Structure formats: structure tokens, C-alpha cells
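Researcher: Here's a chain I'd like modeled. Treat it as a single chain, no partners, no ligands.
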Amino acid sequence: MKCIQCVKENKKSTLFARHGMIVTNMGFTPYYDEEGRYHSHDPNLSTQFFECSNGHVSKVTTLKKCGSCDFGKETVELVEMKK
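Model: Modeled as a single isolated chain. C-alpha cells:
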């Protein structure tokens, strides 16, 4: 993983993990669809903040991907931090 702002600015940096959290949504029931494909739609969100050596802060949010469909994704966004 690279800092998205440093990539835009054509800079190199080191990325450090900062605080993170997991939001737990109640249970889910994995299932097999009509084609026999196993679906695991885990609704629990994981959020991790990263800070690069140039001071940019990014937030990575992950919703675990199902191996059989398009449920779940990972998003990366730059976060403006107030000083």
C-alpha cells in the first residue's frame, strides 16, 4: 500500500498504521446459492488510519469480500487533519 496523496505528487513515503476500529454488526448466515456457490456476506466493517512520513493521513475501510459475488469492498480516502 502507498500513500495516495504522495502517489499523486510523485513523492516517496513510508506509511505507518495509526488507530483503527471494527464496527460489529450482528451475525450473518453464510449460504450456498442455487448454483452451489458459497456466499459469506460478513457485514462487519474494519477501519484503519495510516499516516505517511510526509504527514498525509489516509483512512482504509474494509467490508470483507465474498468469494462468490460482488458483496464487500475496500475503500481508501485521504483525510484532512486539523492541526
